[in-house]
Every structure is written in C-alpha cells, then in structure tokens.
Amino acid sequence: MAPEFTNSLLVSDGARCVIFDAWGRADAWEKLLARRGMRPVAIYATHGHADHISAAPDLAARYNIPWFLNQLDVPLVLWGNQILDFWGLPRIADDFVRPHDLRPGRVKILDDIDMEIIASPGHSLGGVMFYFPEYKILLTGDTIFRDGVGRTDLPGGDEKVLRQSIANLMARDLPDDTHLIHGHGDDSIMGAVKSVFC
Ligand SMILES: [Zn+2]
User: Fold this and answer.
1) Total structural domains in the chain?
2) 93: domain CATH number?
3) CA 93 → CA 7, 85, 115, 123, 124, distances in Å?
C-alpha cells in the first residue's frame, strides 16, 4: 500500500495528545504538533511495518516519551528500513529507542480516555487494534479495510491467523454504528463490515 495512504491519528484532550501509527517524517510531526500547540505524551502502533512506525522511534527520543509496539513486531522495525529507503524517507537508526510492549487489555490514555488493546495477529505477528468504547471508535490497523483484508505476504503474515482475528472481532459484536478507522484508505462502520464478514 502506498505510504501516502497510511492513516495516522491524533487523540487529544487539548494541550496533550497521543499519536497512533506515527507514519512519515519526525520533522513533519514536530511542525504539525507545534502548529496545533500540542504536546505528545505517547505513541502507539497497530503493528511494526515501516509505514506505521517510521517516525515513532525518533519522536519518542525528541519528546522523551514512550512508544508502544507488541514485542512480536519489534524485529520488523529495522527490517522496514529497506522500505524507507525505497520511499526516500529517513532510516530508523540501529540503536533506535526501544518500544514498550503492548499487551491486550484496557489502558487509560490521557486523563479520561479508556482504550482497549485487542490482539489481532495475521497481517503481522504482533498486530493489535485499538478500541475506544465510549466513543465507539475502532482503529483496525491493517487487519481489515473498508474493502477487504490485510495482506499476509509480509514477514509474520498468516492468512489463517488473520481470518481468525477477524472472526474474533466479529464475535465481539461491537455496535453497528462503531466508526472504523483503517490503517489505509477510507473509514467505514461496523454494521457494513459485519455484513461482509458475518
Ligand atoms: Zn502493515
């Protein structure tokens, strides 16, 4: 998937924010955050492919903040440099700031925003989704898209595992009006996705 179509997300309570899938250049993020008057406090990654983490280690160092990635995807971090070269983007340094592990369960981001981390392997070994129950928003990463499922031909990909992750998500029966933000492409809603996968 072309990099310009990666969806990054900022969740903010005003002055502070959390970044999801910090794609692109750290310099560009720094300018954007300064322009919006926001200070990042953490970075979360749905998975370890370069187009979802390219700016994360650098931003973590610049702002002295943690970044989170499931440990099973940590080997993908430097593997992604060949892709960053291809796109003409800055490489991730060999001594990059190590991510904190990301395990399934509930966490609080910012002061009062609850988030559930949902294991979703298949596109990569350590892929996760992020669910905000109060806001009915689900970040799917590259597990599913508006018009299909994630590719499984990259390292750690496994089609059977991906299908099981999607089946597990459908079994949760999230509200039909849950807003889905995918790793690439347009958003969708849960009701439409259920009609495809259930
Ligand atoms: Zn990916």
Assistant:
1) 1
2) 3.60.15.10
3) 23, 13, 30, 24, 22
